[in-house]
Automatic annotation (TrEMBL):
Keywords: Cytoplasm, Methyltransferase, rRNA processing, S-adenosyl-L-methionine, Transferase. S-adenosyl-L-methionine binds at L73, G105, L124, S125, K126, M127, T128, F129. It catalyses: pseudouridine(1915) in 23S rRNA + S-adenosyl-L-methionine = N(3)-methylpseudouridine(1915) in 23S rRNA + S-adenosyl-L-homocysteine + H(+). GO terms for molecular function: rRNA (pseudouridine-N3-)-methyltransferase activity. The keyword DNA repair does not apply. Homodimer. It is an enzyme of class 2 (transferase). Gene3D superfamilies: 3.40.1280.10. Belongs to the RNA methyltransferase RlmH family. This is Ribosomal RNA large subunit methyltransferase H. Signal peptide: none annotated. Specifically methylates the pseudouridine at position 1915 (m3Psi1915) in 23S rRNA.
Length: 157
């Protein structure tokens, strides 16, 4: 299985980029991982919230292959403990899934078309985080999940 993380807009903090790169490198010891950063929408100030979500949605959907499973990072999604998230990943691998795509939307969330294509939603917390922080938290949780599955000492119960 491959995991693809899709996010809108580049990270503007070098500290976050360094931490994301650290966990991305660690994660690649366990699974094929790709981080796709889609460009910010140009002239977004001239667009309504709905128009911006629509344009971002088109960019996200253009990245998908017909066999991909799309999971959206959404505040109304299912919340997992780290151990439960590891089990979620194991089930996806056991199912013979080719590519698990995790998508982080733009500042206003996802378009209706992306929600319609999604195969599920995950929430990292009931708290609101910046889209840039979510990238770091998600990549770290993916890494943590694989260390749990391998019974490695990174995660403590």
């Amino acid at each position: 299985m491959q995991i693809t993380l899709i996010a809108i807009g580049k990270t503007d903090r070098s500290e976050l980029e360094q931490l994301i790169a650290l966990y991305e490198k660690r994660l690649k010891h366990y699974i094929k991982f790709e981080f796709v950063v889609l460009p910010d929408i140009k002239n977004s100030k001239n667009l309504s919230e709905a128009q911006q979500k629509e344009k971002e949605g088109e960019l996200i959907l253009a990245q998908l292959q017909p066999t991909d499973t799309l999971i959206l990072l959404d505040e109304n999604g299912k919340q997992y403990s780290s151990v439960d998230f590891a089990q979620f990943l194991q089930k996806k691998m056991n199912s013979g899934l080719k590519n698990l795509v995790l998508a982080i939307g733009g500042p206003y969330g996802f378009s209706d078309a992306v929600y319609a294509k999604g195969n599920g939603k995950i929430s990292l917390s009931k708290m609101t985080f910046s889209h840039q922080m979510v990238r770091l938290f998600l990549v770290e949780q993916l890494y943590r999940g694989f260390t749990i599955l391998r019974n490695e000492p990174y995660h403590h119960q």
